[in-house]
Specification:
Length: 320
Amino acid sequence: MPDELSSRPPQPIAAEAPALARPYIGRFAPSPTGPLHAGSLVAALASWLDARAHQGQWLLRIEDIDPPRCQVGADRVLLKQLQDCALLPDAPPVWQSQRHAHYDQALQQLLKGGLAYGCACTRKDIEDALAASGQTRARHQAAVYPGTCRQGLKGRAARAWRLRTDPHTSQIAWQDRRLGAQQQDVAAEVGDFVLRRADGLWAYQLAVVVDDAAQGVSHIVRGADLCDNTARQILLQRALGLPIPGYLHTPLVLDARGDKLSKQHGAPAVPTEGTPAASAALCAAASALGLPVEGSARTPAEWLQRWVPAWQALYSPRHG
């Protein structure tokens, strides 16, 4: 007779709640692929307000580990725009391009623990394997890795490195402070995901988890387009023995076609030069977050101080 527990379908595993005693540390982590646009300013403002509502720290990290996508000098432009808007970090910014050794250390830890492995597959290999198994995917849907190299490379050289997911522990449930209960089966919906890419660059998932832990980040406030990454990051946090932050995903700013604003699709830069422009940009971001923009505040700093209690009313510390 089969064991009763082993015959049950895997159940979602809840993410550990952030420790109440942990000091609040938040962060804003833009990629220097261009200046701040309306959507990225919403994320910056929300993360700053949440840190202030918790009487915590707000840190800044420049996520520049993908050089082909980065623009020369865009990091300086981002820092100037944030300064124009009085969104000043509580410590010097961190650049991911200076932290490769930390990502390699994390990868080696996972490899030694049998939690990661080398993969020789090209994109065509993956597509062919999925087609041979009769699996199809919708347009723009990422392919679920079929596990071809899980049992070894069979004489081929590793091109990338992947996290080994376990169907019994990869169903992740967590509570988002705005979106509510969330869950994802990473093994079924994503598969063994990449930690280091075939071009030698570090994957976002590994870098962000390592850096959030190194900076002591306790709460992550970011755009709702990144919510889908959360389960993978929780899996990595567990695999590396790192604390799990609380999460809040903000509303997205959409263009006229209903698509998310992004630098990749030509979202215009937010004008912040001068007090009137910076205040107008902040008010537009605040309005997207459901915050009041009526009143007599004149400078960005005055607007920010007015919005802290309004943010507390929407997302007070008791929510996470």
